[in-house]
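Question (not urgent): is this output format expected?
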Amino acid sequence: MSLATARTTTVASSTGSQTSKVVSVSRETPSPKGSANNGSAITIDDSSPIGSQLANETKRRERLSQRKLRRPEATRIFTVSNQKGGVGKTTTTVNIAAALAASGLNVLVIDIDPQGNASTALGIEHHAEVESIYDVLINDVLLGEVVRSCPDVDRLECAPATIHLAGAEIELVSLVAREQRLRRAIEIYSKERESQGLERLDYIFIDCPPSLGLLTVNAFCAANEVLIPIQCEYYALEGLSQLLSNIEMIQKHLNANLRVSTILLTMYDGRTNLAAQVAAEVREHFPQQVLEAVVPRSVRISEAPSYQQTVMTYDPSSTGALSYMEAAAEIAER
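Got this back:
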């Protein structure tokens, strides 16, 4: 294998009064067998910004490779929610779920967003003729009958959403125990798996629509933890207070066991002061909940859904995949 060697050259300016350093990378031909360089490790010159980033990512991957994710004592059910759109709810849901499943844990994603983006990212059919979570909530179909396995990741399952969910908010209004229907469906499904001799689920992630209607209330009542993705921009902070007040109402009247356990900073752009300020402010107010892992803006993360994949399978070597692996590991260790 050829080695990349960084070479620093001093270049004189036209005036001769200043000099600047230029870092160039050259390719060396493979060393012959038996030579002194044969089998030597590749060293990364971290004096340049790119080299520094590569060195940092290499260290992070080494740390991750040494961590083995433990199974939780009981199934952990997360609602991934934020009433502001475009903050990375679905992206966070599918990528953390895929990262945990790739580590050998049993994971279920429940898509209750009428747009069905989580179903798309996991490669699950969700056209109008498919039985979906809508049938579970409205027609009392068993959750086990709509759950499908993700074709790209072992141990990862998904209950898809269809366009029928768009009218579910109105239909739920007249139903008995309308806020508890998803919770009961999950309980029945867990008992079903146990009776069939299947391994219990380790994690359930519920992907919510960007609203605080009855679908989201069902998700809050079914879960015991809330994962809030926060985009590193000012508007995200405004919406957070409203979301927290709604969660408090759910805790008071419908689900006393619900708690905000995890906050993940997404779309972080380290080149801007605003992103750093938002991150610092969120960490100051929620020191226990905010994950150390931060998800950067990434082209690979954005491209993956167009191939009906998560970034974990689309480009597992990308910075975005690494960040979501770190976030998943943190969640598992809490």
